[in-house]
Amino acid sequence: MADLIVDRRPPVTGATRLAAVIGDPVRHSLSPTLLGAAFAETGLDWTYVALEVAEGTAARALDGMAALGISGLSVTMPHKSAIAAAVDRCTEDAGTLNAVNCVVVEDGELVGYNTDGGGFLDGLKRDAGLDVDGMSVVVLGAGGAARAVVRALASAGATDVVVANRTIEGAEVAASLAGGVGRPIGLSADGCNLALTDALDGAALVVNATSVGMGGIAVDARPVDPTLVNADAVAVDLIYHPVETAWMAALRKRGVEVHGGLSMLVCQAARAFTLWTGSQAPVAAMDAAARTALTGR
Predict the structure, then answer these.
(1) Could you confirm whether 80 is annotated as catalytic?
(2) What does the buried/exposed string (b/e) look like for 40-79 if buried means 16 or more CB atoms within 10 Å of the residue's CB?
């Protein structure tokens, strides 16, 4: 039987600090589960809520954060770019990506962070014990998550970062975030081409950053033919619901080491927790709470 999380926080009072996530929609966000578990496990006098904020009103929500004294803010779609433009300043990562997923109060300023890339690397280390320094990597997709991952991979020392996307224009934008080690590939109609086949054959790490296989979206579809992935590679599917996609199952059947996206989700939230509180995040408790919540979906 799994251990129950004991809520060690004192009763909510006027001294309790508030953090929140904003999004549209936000009701299915796992952030309240993740951060609620973190505050409960550590006993910090914080609480965390989800706030539905309509698209186009993110800057007003940020004004509300300052006016109400909210101590930390998570940001999800569709507000990441709008918040990047509205905070007092962005970190280098958040500014380059034009995407903020975490707002921190620092010396009276609202500072925008992007913890996705670092969360990906933390999750990779946690799941696979992997350091990407010197590695060749293929990233499938060129959206927001892919761009954060590409930048993080290059910053961590990956020597070849191939970005494969349905449009070459999107691949070029994402690959540029890896500087001189980034290489864009446009996918053909069947999701593959010779250049990608060669890249997959030589990759030590393959990352699916597309929505292919997500619950309710062509759940049996696969972002790329699993037989093309090097059997000695490590594969990561950034999708966390379902916990195992059809692509992951096919790779696992071939003996490829494969991991889902839950660790990235947990670890990016853990980074936000530490930025807000200055305390180490209880990653194991956060992961357990997320897995429990996902079993009911």
Answers:
(1) yes
(2) bbbebebbbebbebeeeebeebbebbeeeebbbbbbbeeb
Ramachandran area for residue 100 (φ above 0: left; ψ -120 to 50: alpha; else beta):
beta
> Could you give all domains of the chain from N- to C-terminal order, each with its CATH number?
17-114+265-295 (3.40.50.10860), 117-260 (3.40.50.720)
In which band, very low, low, confident or very high, does the pLDDT at 94 lie, cut at 50, 70 and 90? Answer: very high
Residue written as tokens 């409960």?
40
Structural contact between residues 153 and 118, judged by C-beta atoms closer than 8 angstroms: no
pLDDT at site 67: 95
Q: In terms of Cα–Cα distance, which of 295, 273, 260, 237 is closest to 32?
A: 273
pLDDT in tens, 252-266: 999 999 999 999 999
Amino acid at 171: A
Rounded Cα distance between 201 and 225, Å, is: 12
Please tell me the distance from the alpha carbon of residue 244 to that of residue 109, in angstroms, as a whole number: 41
Percentage with pLDDT > 90 across the chain: 87
**Tens-digit pLDDT profile for residues 37-47:** 999 999 999 99
111 forms bridges with which residues in the sheet? 89, 104
Active-site entry in 79, 80, 126, 241: 80
Q: Is the dihedral of CA 142, 147, 148, 152 positive or negative?
A: positive
